[in-house]
Design goal:
about 325 residues, Rossmann fold, binds magnesium ion, 6-stranded mixed sheet, single chain, alpha/beta, 14 helices, binds guanosine-5'-triphosphate
C-alpha cells in the first residue's frame, strides 16, 4: 500500500517522514517501506517461532514542494491514500491551507473530466454511461465538493479507476502538532469530515524525538502527551480503515505472515492474494478465528475439539482469521 505525504512548503512532511522511518537521518528523496506493527503477528511468532515473520508493509512517499507539479501528480495518483500534512506547529492557518489543497485537487479533477468529456463528445459518445457520469461529477465539483464524498456504485468505480482522480482518493489529514491532542481542533475537524477525510493530530517533531528513545520506553512518553499510540500506528490504522482493509494470517514452519485484504473478501480472494495457483486449484479453506486461537494457540487441540472450520470458496474472511488453503493444481 502506497501512502503519499503532501502539503504546503515547510508543513513538516519530511520531519514526519523521518519519524515514520524511525531515524532522523532517513533519506526523504526515496520511497520508505515500513512494516505494519501487528501485535497479533507478534503473538503468532512467539508461539510458532518460525524462521521468518512477515509483516504487511506500507510504502511512504515524501512528495516534494510544490506538491502539485506534474511529476508529483503522478506519484500522488499512484498512491492508495493521500495524506495531507498541515502546519499547525508554527500557528499556520490549517483550515485555510486545507481548503487550498482541496481546491487544487478538485480543479485538477475538473480539468481531467472536462478533457475526457470533450473527447467522448467528439467521438459521438456524448450519451455513453461514461460521459453521463463525467457530467455528473463535473456538476458535483463545481460547488467545490471533492469526489470522495459521492456514493458511487461498482460500475462507476470501475469506469473511474483508470482516471486516478485526486479528490476521489481516500484522504487523511495530519494536523502537525495539534499541541494538545486531547482537545480537537473543531473548525478543522468539521472541514475535514465534511470533505470525507480523516483527521489525525500528530506532532511530527515529538515523534522524531521519540525515535531516539528505546522502543520499550516510548509508550509512556506517548501517553504523557495524551497520544494513544505512535503517529506511525495511527496513520497506518487510519489508512487501513479508510481503505476498508482487514488482515488474515498464515502460519507455517518457515514463515508466519500477515496478509492485508479488502473487507468482504472471500476465501478464494484470500487464496489468490497468497498465490494465483492457490486460487486456481482451491479446494477448501481451514479457518481458525483469531479470538479462538488467541485463547487456545494449539492447532492439534482445536482439531480434536472439532473447532477447525472447513470453509468453501465463498466464505467471507474475518479480520484476524488464521487461514490454511487446501488446493490442488
Ligand atoms: N517545533 C516543531 N517544528 C517542526 C515540526 N515539524 C516540522 N518542524 C520544523 O519545521 C521546519 C520544516 O519542516 P520539514 O519537515 O522540513 O517540512 P517539509 O514539509 O518537509 O518542508 P519542505 O520539504 O521544505 O516543503 C523544520 O525546521 C522542522 O524542524 C513540529 O512538529 N514541531
Ligand atoms: Mg521536505
Amino acid at each position: 500500500m502506497k501512502i503519499a505525504l503532501a502539503g504546503k512548503p515547510g508543513c513538516g512532511r519530511s520531519t514526519l517522514f523521518r519519524a515514520l522511518a524511525g531515524s532522523p537521518d532517513a533519506e526523504t528523496g526515496k520511497p520508505l517501506t515500513v512494516k505494519v506493527p501487528d501485535h497479533r503477528l507478534d503473538f503468532l511468532k512467539e508461539i510458532h517461532n518460525p524462521e521468518k515473520k512477515i509483516n504487511a508493509t506500507v510504502v511512504f512517499f515524501d512528495i516534494p514542494s510544490p506538491a502539485f507539479s506534474s511529476k508529483n501528480l503522478t506519484l500522488i495518483r499512484n498512491a492508495a491514500v493521500l495524506t495531507v500534512v498541515l502546519d499547525n506547529y508554527a500557528l499556520g492557518d490549517t483550515v485555510n491551507d486545507f481548503n487550498e489543497i482541496e481546491s487544487e485537487l478538485i480543479l485538477n479533477d475538473m480539468a481531467l473530466c472536462e478533457k475526457r468529456l470533450a473527447r467522448l463528445i467528439k467521438e459521438s459518445k456524448g450519451k455513453s454511461r461514461e460521459a453521463v457520469l463525467l457530467g455528473n461529477l463535473q456538476r458535483h465539483m463545481e460547488s467545490g465538493s471533492p469526489l470522495r464524498i459521492l456514493e458511487l456504485d461498482k460500475g462507476e468505480v470501475a469506469i473511474l479507476t483508470p482516471y486516478a482522480l485526486l479528490s476521489l482518493k481516500p484522504l487523511i489529514v495530519v494536523s502537525n502538532r495539534m499541541g494538545d491532542p486531547i482537545t480537537p481542533d473543531e473548525e478543522l475537524s468539521a472541514a475535514v469530515s465534511e470533505h470525507g477525510g480523516t483527521l489525525l493530530g500528530i506532532d511530527a517533531g515529538f515523534e522524531l524525538e521519540l525515535t531516539e528513545i528505546d522502543e520499550s520506553e516510548q509508550a509512556p512518553f506517548l501517553e504523557s502527551m495524551g497520544y494513544s499510540s505512535s503517529g506511525l500506528s495511527r496513520l497506518i490504522s487510519a489508512s487501513y480503515s479508510t481503505l476498508d482493509l482487514i488482515v488474515f494470517f498464515t502460519i507455517g514452519k518457515d514463515e508466519t505472515r500477515a496478509w492485508p485484504i479488502r473487507r468482504g473478501s472471500t476465501a478464494l480472494d484470500a487464496a489468490g492474494a497468497i498465490h494465483s495457483d492457490l486460487a486456481r486449484g482451491f479446494i477448501r479453506a481451514v479457518v481458525i478465528p483469531w479470538e479462538l486461537y488467541h485463547e487456545y494457540p494449539d492447532r492439534t487441540l482445536l482439531k480434536e475439539k472439532g473447532e477447525l472450520r472447513i470453509e468453501g470458496r465463498d466464505y467471507t474472511v474475518r479480520d484476524g482469521d488464521l487461514i490454511e488453503i487446501r488446493f490442488n493444481v
